[in-house]
Design a protein that fits this description.
By secondary structure, the chain is of the alpha/beta class. The chain is built from 9 helices and 8 strands.
């Protein structure tokens, strides 16, 4: 177990929400609108990074804002394809009762993040999304911002994520990392803490 945890920071995709179908449909819309040849699997392997950074990884360097706008609009339109993982709501209620502060640190834009949290009626105190002032994962900026907002120490925080970039951001922030084996990323032997379902988080803290 990880002791003395006062702050639990959560990624969204592959941690709280199953968004893969939504992402697939949204990316196909982008491909069609902008005649992009990179398929969804090429896009998906970079999930966890900020959207425009993924585009650059795919050697897409033009019309970044327009592409993001189309992707965002389609993602919102296809929101019914997004599912909350089993046990998320109950686990978060349990943590709230224990007076543990909950936060979201995600590469998803602020608008869609707030839409999701509102739609599924999730009680989250801290929300940190990409901004011009914060470097995206794997840099630690967003996590450190959340810890600062929570007014706690890195030793009292954990970050729950599914991708390697999540782990790298947590490591650079000097906070404990919990990997969701059910998410979209690969499992590595160097992950010290892993969970097979969201409710298993209660066995760790």
């Amino acid at each position: 177990m990880i002791k003395n945890i006062k702050l639990v920071l959560l990624d969204l995709d592959g941690v709280m929400f199953d968004t893969k179908k939504n992402m697939h449909i949204s990316w196909m819309k982008v491909q069609k609108e902008f005649n992009i040849k990179k398929n969804f699997n090429s896009y998906f392997k970079f999930i966890g990074m900020p959207f425009t950074k993924i585009l650059k990884k795919l050697s897409i360097n033009n019309h970044l804002n327009e592409i993001h706008a189309v992707y965002q609009k389609e993602s919102i339109r296809q929101s019914r394809k997004i599912k909350l993982y089993r046990g998320v709501r109950e686990t978060l209620k349990n943590l709230n009762k224990r007076k543990i502060t909950l936060g979201v640190v995600t590469s998803k834009d602020k608008f869609r993040t707030l839409k999701l949290i509102k739609k599924f009626k999730i009680d989250i105190k801290i929300i940190v999304t990409p901004s011009k002032k914060l470097r995206g994962k794997p840099f630690p900026d967003q996590l450190l911002k959340a810890i600062k907002i929570a007014k706690t120490n890195v030793s009292n925080a954990i970050y729950v994520g599914d991708m390697l970039v999540d782990y790298k951001a947590a490591k650079k922030s000097n906070i404990n990392f919990v990997h969701t084996k059910y998410g979209y990323g690969k499992s590595y032997n160097f992950y010290k803490h892993t969970i097979s379902q969201f409710k298993d988080l209660l066995k760790i803290i």
